[in-house]
From TrEMBL:
Region described as Disordered: spans on this chain: 36-84, 349-370
Annotated TM spans: 378-399
Keyword annotations of the record: Hydrolase, Membrane, Protease, Serine protease, Signal, Transmembrane, Transmembrane helix
Domain of life: Bacteria
Coiled coil: none
Protein name (database record): S8 family serine peptidase
Family: Belongs to the peptidase S8 family.
Source organism (scientific name): Streptomyces longisporoflavus
PANTHER family: CEREVISIN-RELATED (PTHR43806:SF11), PEPTIDASE S8 (PTHR43806)
Biased amino acid composition, Basic and acidic residues: 72-84
Higher taxonomy: Bacteria, Bacillati, Actinomycetota, Actinomycetes, Kitasatosporales
First and last residue of the signal peptide: 1-29
Pfam families xrefs: Peptidase_S8
Limits of the Peptidase S8/S53 domain: 97-335
Length: 418
């Protein structure tokens, strides 16, 4: 074989090997990205090398005069995964919940907290939040980020009506929850979110929920009490209240992968899941941030989404709002909140409010941009690989014939002898 022929053969052989490698890489590229587009939430709330303190949902009731939750000295400068998951930057171009009042029933809300000034109404004890949990949740519902716009809540244009559903240390009380529901109803709150979950049904609470719904409020409640973990103890599944009341949107917490945390209490009748681990918000004191977790965190974000829906669709009934939140959610065993779709979907579209999307196997949280990029790369690799394989096949066919012709063009070589 002449040097030029040997060189051409080596080039074609190399191209074939490269094509094989490219095809091997391209095949799993898209599934690898879509399977787990979100990494577990960082302990630093999005800022490398910095840890944020945790926000408790209650303080030790036996601690007597123990101090309240101290101000955080740390600040998170980047968006946490929950805000990216809910696509808040895009959502806020369509609505911020302007003109809607969200009644938050929990440990109270500090009216002068960073990111909430001028938009919180808190009468009496509801304005004193020793635990800090209610203020943390208010920031998720309607905070403006306190100088960090990318850490704003779901409905930064909404107003907060702070109400107590717990004692000063955060212990849930059915009587207080029922009383606060009545106050929220009298105030004509458009959305009511109950951040506590009670183990037993209460007649007064049941009546208060029914009255609130008849008055036109969207009622949302944490599906379970917040629980950081329960060790090896097996807790039987049960219904918690008022999440179990008819017409109440029961919301549970989920991890970035779309599943509930290992320490979450088992329950049934969950309507919606929302981010509930490694979520960043502020507290009642100082300018710093905390990390929060639990069904109450998820319920607060769902309440913010409901406020944006109510503002964008003022003629929608409470049932319509609830239907939008559930029918436009990502399909899974527990539908996963998609605030942007709930606001922008037009009734009658595929998967629009009023329709239904059957629950499928659990799905991972989707990151469309990453998937699109991976799909584009995979397509390019396949095209390049296919071209290289075709070149190898052509070479395998053409080179022996050319060699037999003495590397002369076919038209000048005459008959080829064997």
């Amino acid at each position: 074989m002449k040097p030029s022929a040997r060189h051409g053969a080596r080039l074609l052989t190399g191209a074939g090997l490269a094509a094989a490698l490219l095809l091997t890489v391209s095949a799993p590229a898209a599934p690898a990205v879509t399977a787990a587009p979100f990494a577990p939430p960082p302990a630093d709330g999005g800022k490398k090398g910095q840890e944020l303190p945790g926000m408790p949902s209650a303080l030790d009731p036996d601690a007597g005069d123990a101090p309240c939750t101290p101000a955080s000295r740390e600040k998170a400068e980047k968006q946490d995964w929950s805000r990216q998951r809910l696509d808040l930057d895009r959502l806020h171009k369509y609505g911020t919940g302007q003109g809607v009042t969200v009644a938050l029933i929990g440990t109270g809300v500090a009216p002068d907290a960073a990111g909430l000034k001028g938009r919180v109404t808190a009468a009496g004890a509801a304005g004193d939040d020793c635990v800090g949990h209610g203020t943390f949740l208010a920031g998720l519902v309607a905070g403006d980020g306190g100088g960090s716009p990318r850490l704003a809540g779901v409905a930064p244009g909404a107003e907060i009506l702070a109400l107590r559903g717990t004692g000063p240390r955060g212990r849930a009380d059915a009587g207080l929850v029922a009383e606060s529901l009545r106050e929220a109803t009298e105030a004509r709150a458009g959305v009511i979110v109950v951040a506590v979950a009670l183990p037993r049904r209460d007649k007064e609470l049941t009546r208060a929920v029914a009255d609130a719904r008849r008055a036109g409020a969207v009622v949302i409640a944490a599906a379970t009490p917040d629980a950081a973990g329960r060790g090896t103890e097996e807790v039987p599944s049960r219904t918690y209240w008022p999440a179990g009341e008819p017409g109440v949107l029961s919301v549970a917490d989920m991890l970035p992968g779309g599943v509930r945390p290992d320490g979450a209490l088992p329950t049934d009748g969950i309507d919606l899941a929302a981010p509930g681990a490694g979520v960043v918000s502020g507290g009642p004191r100082g300018q710093g941030h905390y990390l929060g977790a639990g069904a109450s965190v998820a319920a607060a974000q769902a309440a913010g989404a409901a406020a944006v829906v109510r503002a964008a669709h003022p003629d929608a009934s409470p049932a319509d709002v609830t239907r939008r939140l559930t029918a436009t959610a990502y399909p899974a065993d527990i539908p996963q909140l998609d605030a942007y779709a709930a606001v922008t979907t037009v009734p009658g579209d595929s998967g629009a409010a009023g329709g239904s999307r059957p629950a499928a196997d659990p799905v991972a949280v989707r990151d469309t941009s990453a998937t699109d990029r991976a799909t584009g790369r995979a397509t390019l690799f396949v095209l390049l690989g296919t071209a290289a394989v075709l070149a190898v096949l052509w070479g395998a066919f053409a080179l022996p014939r050319a060699r037999r012709r003495g590397w002369r063009p076919a038209e000048a070589g005459g008959p080829v002898k064997g």
